[in-house]
Amino acid sequence: MASTASSNQLSQRRKTTLQAIKSFNDWTIEGILAWRSAKCTHEILPKSLNQPSMSNTIYKAYFSGIMPFFRDFKLKINDIIEDEKENKIAIWAQSTAVTDLGPYANEYMLVLYFDESGEKVDRFLEFVDSASSRESMVALMKYIAEKQAEKEA
Fold first, then answer.
1. What span, in angstroms and rounded, lies between the C-alpha atoms of 59 and 37?
2. pLDDT tens column, 124-133
3. Distance CA 108, CA 92 (A)
4. What is the spatial distance between Cα 70 and Cα 144, in angstroms, rounded to a whole number?
5. Do the beta carbons of residue 60 and residue 29 sit within 8 Å?
6. Which of 14, 76, 121, 146 could form a cystine bridge with 10, CB 3.0-4.6 A?
7. Exposed, middle or buried: residue 84 (CB in 10 Å: 0-12, 13-18, 19+)?
8. Cβ(143)–Cβ(68) under 8 Å?
């Protein structure tokens, strides 16, 4: 059963979720990894995007590689649904940023599955706006690859 908590009685799950959102707004890889358990997996969905499930190590390498190409990244929560029984939270969110290729925006449904304490996330599902992601991320990944090739030349 989904529930919401009043602001003066936040569950540990909700506190961890707010820490997670803040870490993306603070834009440091250390902060983004801090609320994840050692066994956390990160999945970018829908499956039609053909993205593999990532361990913390793989996610750190992937995300650290693209972070420098985003400036002023902001993640805004539209809604949070907390499921106490299943120990998870779903978030509808939107992001904006600036890249060398122009403005970036995306919309997400994020599902965080927590450990027993609610302090760490064991599984992170990131459903992205696939139409927007295909267009913007393909162009951005090509740009990043070109910049890396220039560095190596």
1. 13
2. 999 998 777 6
3. 6
4. 11
5. yes
6. 14
7. middle
8. no
- Asked if 124 contacts 42 with a C-beta cutoff of 8 angstroms, the reply is yes
In whole angstroms, give the CA distance from residue 91 to residue 112: 8
Using CA atoms, how far apart are residues 19 and 4, in angstroms rounded to an integer?
17
Q: Which two tokens stand for residue 16?
A: 């961890």
Please provide residue 143's backbone torsions phi and psi, each rounded to the nearest 5 degrees.
Answer: -60, -45
Number of Cβ within 10 Å of residue 141's Cβ equals 13
Tell me the CA distances in angstroms from 28 to 2, 87, 123, one per residue in order. 31, 26, 20
The letter for the amino acid at 35 is W
In angstroms, the CA 59 to CA 51 distance is 11
User: What is the sign of the dihedral through the CA atoms of 39, 77, 110 and 51?
Assistant: negative
Q: How far apart are CA 113 and CA 42, in angstroms?
A: 11
Q: Supply the pTM of this predicted model.
A: 0.85
In total, the chain counts a number of residues equal to 153
